Amino acid sequence: MCIKKWWKKIFVAICLLCLACAVVVPTMVVGNSSTSKVVIDAGHGGLDGGVSSKNGVKESDLVLVLARLVGERLEGAGVKVVYTRKNKGALVGGKFIKKRDMEKRLAIIKRANPSLVVSIHLNSYKDKSRRGMQVFFGVEQSKGAAEHLQEQLNNHFNEPDVGRRFSVLQGDKYILNESPCPALIVECGFLSNPIDEQNLLSDTYRNQLAEVLCSSILSFVGE
Ligand SMILES: [Zn+2]
Question: In angstroms, rounded to a whole number, what is the distance separating the alpha carbons of residues 51 and 211?
Fold first, then answer.
């Protein structure tokens, strides 16, 4: 009788232990993998300078500065950041071939397996009065993130500076279409517009922009 009672107690204890493991272990696994990873993609580079202003300011140089500013802030907040490029050089050596450059970027994204890809670019347009920041997405899985970033850019820059809010646009771009996770292109202003150009050359403005992009990314990835 007594031995039977003990077995009962041991059985109950084992069951409770199993239950505790079932609850605690997955929590621990989620905890360990909860550090978000973001790919920050500075557009262009090397022979591909992207668009440029009439003063010769190149998109590839400015987006590299912005990418670093955003990336450093994200890292400071505990996010793992993977950069597609960290210097002025091209991603692929030799003659510039857009397709090879894009494939290399996609390979970096796939290897990193991030929660979000933010590709940073600058715009240019024949109508030099055109200003503002525009977010593009490719497929449905990216629309929510695009709308979130666009909303923040509208609140902090487009509405106060340009006097209008922008809606997200769907773009048929290789990286946006092929990325396994939500991916966005953020056009951070028009190099064809003298005010946008002047702003983008200012350290203060770039830091403000990086701050807004960083906090928008953080709220999307849940850090
Ligand atoms: Zn570009």
Answer: 24
